[in-house]
Design brief:
- The chain is mainly alpha-helical and 423 residues long.
- The strands form four sheets. A three-stranded antiparallel beta sheet has the order 3-4-7. Strands 1-2 form a two-stranded antiparallel ribbon.
- 49% of the residues lie in helices and 4% in strands.
- It has 16 helices and nine strands.
- The structure holds (2R)-2,3-dihydroxypropanoic acid (DGY).
- The site of (2R)-2,3-dihydroxypropanoic acid has 4 residues, from loops.
């Protein structure tokens, strides 16, 4: 297939999944607006329709709560094809939203959109829109500081596996054990009606997901109460690295806009994260790993999120060398980097969601970070593998790192967007 054909195919996916101001990840499996999906989708639109790119992010932030919280799903229109839908979340918000958040990639995306507007001499037309988004982005980042970092370490503590975006990563198995699933009740999953159950989380995992949603409902989605009493609290290596990076990009925008007070506040958030993130270094594994806040134990799992340290701008030569050694080892075991779980882990499964498959958006962040840190060969391999998967197999939700076969939904918006933004 030629580049032109692939470009046209990727644009056709975004156009077909466009619901007018927001884009669904996949019309059947995920028929609403998802938080970090939309941010990446904006990068795709920006390659041919700048206004539509900004609109995607603006629509998402139209669902922001008064306290700065930005939900992981916005249910702009109901759709019976997804479970758990708006009535299960019962957040009582307008528009109807879920009650948990997702990895904060939006500030980094908005900086990219802004840089692209400057490069095209279109910044005057977008300056007011940037100012308005800046206020919303900093409100969200403050929310993470105030509600998701109870010990003030500069990390992000996830209260639900869905918040991390890596829903069924084995990182959540042991921290998930205290979740009481005895009152979850009967429910009908819709995901396994659309997709092979072998590609999806298990029943036990779903029971835990729902028990945590029910816990949030019982707290009236009061995030202070949830942070205090939630039975699941994991300092997620992925969200922690992503927020650190996002704060660096937000600082760049603050400086550009002359927002000195906010810039000082963002600098303080960055300094706290830079000082505290070492808590997520696992000395035994020689890797960045998520850590259970309730027990203090490291997950010990090397996942694709472990490699986001480059994207976060953590220039630590010894730790970088250890992560590069893992990258080379893993790269010699699989055809396509970066599997979502270390292929030498006994729990590795090549097509099960976040227990093996390669995800284009994570690769995009890893590859970007490696390139910025000057690790050109590794950056080139990650990018090459990502694009090869799409060229050979189309725009799937994820891919087997072993044989490249598609996993999860097809015609997937964020994969198509990464093609357009990164090819
Ligand atoms: C799902 O329903 O599988 C989603 O990942 C939740 O965000």
């Amino acid at each position: 297939m030629t580049i032109e054909t692939l470009d046209a195919g990727a644009r056709a996916i975004l156009t077909a999944n466009d619901r007018g101001g927001y884009t669904v990840p996949n019309g059947r499996v995920y028929p609403f607006q998802w938080n970090w999906d939309s941010a990446f989708v904006a990068l795709g639109f920006d390659t041919w329709d700048r206004d539509r790119a900004w609109k995607e992010v603006e629509t998402l932030f139209n669902a922001q709560w008064d306290d700065g919280f930005l939900p992981h799903i916005v249910f702009w229109q109901d759709d019976p094809g997804y479970f758990p839908g708006p009535s299960v979340w019962a957040t009582g918000k307008t528009p109807v939203t879920s009650g948990i958040t997702q990895p904060p990639v939006a500030a980094t995306v908005v900086r990219k959109l802004w840089d692209s507007a400057i490069a095209a001499d279109a910044d005057d037309a977008y300056r007011l829109r940037l100012e308005s988004l800046f206020d919303k982005l900093i409100a969200w980042h403050r929310w993470f500081r105030d509600y998701r970092d109870p010990d003030g370490r500069g990390v992000v503590v996830a209260m639900h596996p869905w918040e991390t975006g890596r829903d069924n990563s084995p990182e959540w198995d042991i921290p998930g054990e205290p979740i009481d699933i005895s009152n979850v009740g009967e429910y009908v999953r819709r995901d396994t009606g659309h997709l092979d159950a072998k590609m999806r989380p298990t029943k036990l995992e779903y029971d835990r997901y729902l028990a945590l949603v029910q816990y949030g409902v019982a707290q009236g989605w009061d995030h202070a109460k949830i942070t205090a009493g939630n039975p699941f609290k994991v300092a997620d290596i992925g969200m922690s690295m992503i927020l650190l990076r996002a704060n660096r990009d937000l600082l760049h925008l603050a400086d550009y806009l002359g927002r000195d007070e906010e810039a000082a506040e963002i600098r303080a958030m960055i300094a706290t994260a830079e000082a505290g993130i070492d808590w997520l270094w696992d000395e035994e594994k020689h890797s960045w790993c998520s850590r259970d806040l309730l027990t203090g134990r490291s997950s010990g799992f090397i996942t694709s999120a472990s490699f986001l340290s480059f994207y976060a701008g953590l220039a630590d030569p010894a730790k970088d060398a250890a992560m590069l050694a893992h990258l080379h080892r893993i790269g010699s075991k699989v055809e396509y980097l970066m599997p979502s779980l270390d292929p030498e882990d006994p729990g590795f499964q090549m097509i099960r969601y976040w227990r093996g498959p390669v995800w284009a958006v994570v690769n995009y962040m890893i590859g970007t970070g490696l390139a910025e840190a000057g690790f050109d060969a590794e950056a080139a391999r990650v990018r090459h593998d990502t694009l090869a998967l799409m060229e050979r197999n189309g725009f799937y939700e994820a891919y087997s790192p072993v044989d490249g076969s598609g996993s999860g939904g097809d015609d997937f918006s964020w994969t198509a967007a990464i093609w357009l933004a990164w090819r």
